[in-house]
Each structure stands twice: as C-alpha cells, then as structure tokens.
Amino acid sequence: MSAPAGLAQRAVLRVWSGILWLSVASVAAWVLVRGFGYDHRTPFAQLVSFTPYLAVASLVPLVAALVTRAWRVAVVAGILVAVLGAFVVPRMVPSGSPDGDRLTVMAFNTKIGVGSVEELAALIRREKPDVLTVQELTPEWAAKFAALELFPYSAQRALPGAAGTGIWAKYPLTDARTVDPKSGFDQTFAVLRRPGKPAVEVVSAHPRPPVIRTDDLGSPRRWVGDLERLPAASDSGPVRVMAGDFNASFDHSPFRDLVDTGYVDAAVEVGKGLVPTWPMNGNHAPPVTIDHVLVDSRGDASSFDAYTIAGSDHRAIVTDLVLPS
Asked: Where are the transmembrane segments (predicted)?
C-alpha cells in the first residue's frame, strides 16, 4: 500500500471511530437522563418516553463496532445496550396469573370530546367493564354518552376543553370529588361500593402534559406537580385504582416515583408494558405508552388490552384487576 493510500485509510478510520464514539456518547447521555431522572425539564421531559425505541437503535453502534473491530467502542456500547435492556425488557415479562376477586377497568381519553361515543359503546358492550374512567370529558361528550345508559352510576366533572374527567360504574359511587383542586386538570375521585365486597377507591387520572408552553395547559414543572398530587399508594383503607391518561410513560421518573409508592402497573404486570397508547391518529411521532391502570400492591392484574377508537388520539385500555376479597 502506498503512503498516500495508507494515510487516507487511517483518516477514514479516524472519522469512523469519531462517528462511533459520538453515537455511543449520545446513547450514554440518554441513559444518564433516564437512569438518574433528569427529565423534569424540556426537552428531556418530552424525549425520554422514546427510550424503548432508543434501546433498539442502540444496537446499531454496537454491531458497527463489532464489525469494524473497534473493541473499546464495542465494550462501552455493549454496556449501554445492557442498561437500556434492563430499563425496557422487564415491561415485556409477565409476572404470573393471579386468582381472586375480579374487577374490569376501562379508561379512555376522548381527545376533547372528539372520540367516537358509538365505538366506545360497542367496546363497552363487548368487554363489559365494571368501571370506566374518562379523560378530556366535555359536557357535550358526557351528554351523548349518558344518553346511551350504559352505566347506572357516574361521578362526572365535565368541563370545556381538556380539563374534565369522569367515572362511570355498574355499582354506586360515593364521596365524589376532585383529587386536588390545585391540579391543572380535574382528576375525579370516587369510592366504588360493590354489594358484599370491599369498597374500591377510583381515580380518573389526567395530569397536565409536559408540553413546551408557559400557559396553564402545561409545562414540565406543572406536569411534575400534577403527578405528585396524585395520592400515594397505601396498604390500609380501601384498595385504590387509578386509571387514565397519565401523560407519562414508565421512562419518566415522576411516574416511576408514583408507582414506587406501592402501585402495580397492570400492563407491566402482564408483560404488555410496551403496548403503545398515544398518539394513534396518524401523528408522525412514534407511539408511546402514557395511558395506564394502576392498583395498589394489594391488587394485581391478569389481562391488559388496548383498542383504537375513531376520533381520539388515545387508545382505550381495558384490564382485569384481581383484588383481595
């Protein structure tokens, strides 16, 4: 090989090595943000929910380093792939099939009253949920839904825009109120009274989104505040179920902090923690999992499914919970 050719080859290798190291450094920065919870600010609050996609993409620099025998890069890239796998893979592993008192819960975000009442009604007739929580409940949507008489009981806090929520149930609902009047969106609370069975506290969850705005709709700071206002899990009193659009994925540290107080995420429990729920209306953003059903640690889950409803950018989610008798 001539000297000029050798110099050119070494220059190419240096450039390639620089690209690989830059790729690995970018993945490492993401791992630090996700692992240490540096997601309370823009743009990390918006980006960190795409961690499952990055976990797959992180294989590219690892494979490239192995093919080109860039061993030091390969070692670092391999460690990062393993860490990202530890973040993501457990959500795909079911924990078992529990037995006990069953409660079927459905949650749906109407997209400010645009989601099809008729399609949701058909899903309700098929799945027969005991409880339905609704987010972005507008007065017009609530009136159309109530006219179908699918549930005998409800606790509605319908409002214009995105702030309203509600709960419908087969059994009486008492003690209806908002979770915290300081929350930007109303988050309805009620106690489900099932004949001959223990009471269940139900929350229609809908914290503000971590959007890049400075008004009352949302911001990362307000989003964190709303998540912190949701009640922590407790092992005393009625079992608590929170279902809805949490505007947060399992990769968001404020959501994990809430779960870590003692909640079980139904989708994660049955190995479907990566089933996407938003956006599902042709938006170009990759879909992520921000709609959840949580039950405190005295409960469990045996199934979870998500269904597309015309008009809404959120999928309706349905889970069978297993509660203590």
From this structure: 12-32, 44-66, 73-93
